[in-house]
Fold these 3 entries.
Entry 1:
Amino acid sequence: MLPPSQRLEPRLRGGQISFAYIAANPAGRRKFGVIQARDSRHLNEQLRQNRLVPLQTWTMPAWMGRGTRKVSLKDQAELHTQLAQLLTRGVPLVEALEVTASAVASGTRPRVERMREMVAGGASFSEAAANVQVFDPVTISVYRAAERTGDLGGAAKQLSLTVRRQLQLGNKVITLLLYPLIVVTISILVALIIITFIVPRIVGALEGAQVELPFITRAMSNAGLFIQGQWPWLLVAVFGALAGAFVVRRRIAEGVSWVSRRLPILRDVVLTQESARFFTVMAAMTRSGITLGDALGVASGAISHPALKTELSMLRTRLIEGGVLRHLIDSVTSLPLPTRRLLIAAERSGDLESAFGTLADDLTEELDRNTARLLAVLEPLMIVMMFLFIGSMLLSIMIPMMRAATSVG
């Protein structure tokens, strides 16, 4: 039975505990932070390595700890790159992990150090990675297959390219979403300023001049006065709405994904992105010696497009049942016809591995073109929407002002 001190510590998966701490640096200044460690002794060692003197520490509940968070793709790419460079030069795995731990972010470093300790204790690299949750199941499967072939460095190099390609795809999606988000945010802020501060003053002056006001102008003035008088409660409501959106963020993401798959403008971009992700995973897994059936099972789980995912799952099932791949590829109608013809030709020549890599590169370039085309359409569309949104407010003010000027003239 464990002693009470160990029973009270909420251990995370991978043997890590989250601690909040207050420490002093060499200049005497205090620093507050959160760090993961196996126990209090390991925590003090990590703080001393960062030239910090612990003053007070608290054990955090597991649900609050950062150890439950996924390792960022940037850290994964750096980890793969360092391992590839070191292992291909003959550096032992334990020493390579020790060097790699210093190259990743501080939040990921405890996990890599834990992996090094487990490997030094006799565990395989894939087992250690699965235990501390550094990588996703796809990456762990690739490393497990590479351990059988003895080419761990080659697998790390291929995974480095794969993760950096995924980062590139993710950055394109962020760029695509960032522009309309900025435009909508600016429009809302400008509209709030106009309604809250400008419209009520102008309406008050026009009423003093006994000018007849349109209904929309009075409604905007009343809304502005209401915001001025009730802004604390409105602020609480906004924060409550944001908190509620955070709670149901998965449902919101599913709704956005559902809409994006059906809009003519976004439909091609989403399908291209999902296809590029699928072929990127397939290229990484087939080059590591994983069988085609297993690779299809993992790669189809890495995408979220319902139609493409269903068709690929059916293809895998029929392939395992004894079907011929070249006859089954045509059933994946979500993929373009040229892509299917290329896969059929590659299967006949026995060069599917190169075909997957080529398709991943081609689809990434196509995603660039589709993203640029979509941004070219969104820019004038968002400008027109912002003009209609803010321009209607300005017109509701300008019309009574023009009437007042005409009556005075």
Note: Confidence is low (pLDDT under 50) at residues 1-14.
Entry 2:
Amino acid sequence: MYLYANYDLKERNTFGVSCKARYFVEIKHASAIPTLRQDPKLASLPWKIMGGGSNLLLTHDLDALVLSCNYDEIKIVKEDQHSVWLSVGAGRSWHDLVTYTVEQGWWGLENLALIPGNVGAAPVQNIGAYGAEVQDTITRIQTFDLRNGQRIELRKNECHFAYRDSIFKHELSNRVLIHRVTFRLLKQSTPNLVHEPLHEAMFVNHPNLKLENITPRMVYDAIIKLRQERIPDPSVLGSAGSFFKNPSITLKHFQQLQQQYPDIPGHKLTNGCIKIPAAWLIEKAKWKGRRVEDVGTYYKHALILVNYGKASGKDILNVAEAIREDVINHFSISLEKEVVVW
């Protein structure tokens, strides 16, 4: 464990925004927490948890101790004829984990390939893509209490998973540090192709392909191709993926919008509401590909805000707020940020 002072977080957030933390530390073991608590200066500061910085917008320097877990081991904790239970350190790269599982031929994570960030952040956000969410495979999560370093284990039903949401964004926000996540993966399964673009990508070049012949690796490869075609590489162009959540509106509101916008897409939810793609709303509000100095929306995907150079976090937030206001004015729909703002 090494404690850094006045630590620039620029290389630790995918927006590439320069902000300094008063102190920064990476930890592997629970014993580090009481050790840090013994320092009166550190104990008096707010403690904030940071993963891979892939769903984070930094808007100012942090007078805080920023902690990150760098425990990255992968181990099988249980296995039977049908399943394998995999315990993974929070500091492991998410995409590295997905790659490892498809190389073993295991089903469950292949639809979530190429999502940036670390394993520990995945349940916080309940990351999802192409018809899958990480909660589909999680069985339990091991954490450290930031007050005393005690181990706290949560089972899946205790995590309050919802659309891009979990208990770690609410009651347990900056109170526990995720150390390990356990996933149950399947040795045999059918591919999840409910997302239409993925289904098309799988069969467009293989019209005679049979469902039972599809492997996790084939889905993984198709997902990577789809993402690379639409989403910028954050190492080349700073971004944090989807900036806003897809909003849900009442059926009545949707029907009213259909009168003005007959092409408006919508997906009916079990509660009767209609989920609208935020990217469609932003594009209709004439923000797709638009740029304000060093901040803009990606020309291939309106839901992605990008840093074209030296934009500050406040610059990015200002553009996000302008987009949000225009969507409200056009559709009477308020977009909620998916990205966490510090």
Note: Residues 313-331 form the longest helix (19 residues).
Entry 3:
Amino acid sequence: MWSWVTRVLVGALCLLAGVITVEIVLRATGWGLSDKSLHALHELRLDRPWLYGLRPGIEVKVPATGDVVYRINEDGFRDRRYPKTPPDGAFRIMVLGNSVGFGYGVEEPETFATRLEEVLNGRSSAGGVEVLNFSVNGYNAYNQAAQLDDVGLAYHPNLVLVQFSVGVLHNPTLHFDHQTQMHLGMIPAEAFPNPDQRRAPPEHPWMVRLCSRLRICAFVDERILEPRRREIDPLPGLASVGPRELPAGPEREWLRARYNHIRRSAASVGAGFAVVVFPYKEQVYGSASGRLQEQLAELGREEGWLMIDLLPALRRAAATDPELYVDTWHVTASGNQLAAEVIAEQLAAAGLVRDGARPAVQ
């Protein structure tokens, strides 16, 4: 007969073997990745200044957006792959954005970046415009600037187009899930529009940190624990979601500094710079004012940025189209199409896109 010590050891080994087997199956099949949120699309990149990005080669459906498929290419972007060196005659526009630019709720061909490429090529006698969509869910101007410096400039853009939505001004940790926050640690102060929002992360025991790196723990957290947390607080962090305007304080100066950084980086490779401002739904269909756009326009005049305001066009379209928004923040396919048309018109009027061929960047 085995002693009780032997029984405990055998039981522990069997349990360990079972956990290892389940972990291997989850990693091999991808089943442990959540199919109920966009978190499955992301991977931590603590070795890069942009902190996290899209997981290369993954494909995910999110029940909240029906049959929409989110496919990420091998370079880590929701777009087709592009060579680093542009083709002869190409004019490259690089879109830096968050989930609005990423196209939450619409298929990839329906994003404003893809539509913009079609519109510009349709209007150009020579064609050859490429619009590279580098948008990542949850990114703000800090991530965008770091992404451009670290990755984007290698693609030789001729124009850097930054997509703004009011989420850019929110506490960036609101976009992270529980496990992501655990591993990110102390996020750089420059990532916070308001430095008062920055807090040191809580200390976690080594067993918790180890478990958080296992797919089986992520599965349990997302499928069992997260739904229970949502029952308690259906919209976590809503009370601290951030400003709906651009305060004349740290947020304004933070945005000024981040966008000027992006503009200087673009200029270092001879590229232009512009900002496209997406309104939120309440501004288009509800009673929210356009004060945010007025504040951004003022900032743009001070710094010499082209600010493309989509609010007037979307308000006009809302009179006949009741479905311009997927939710509070994200526009539908028709909203993206309208955005692309307005952006194309204003870029052309400002002389930031040209009709005809352009020599390849060397």
Note: The longest strand covers residues 91-96.
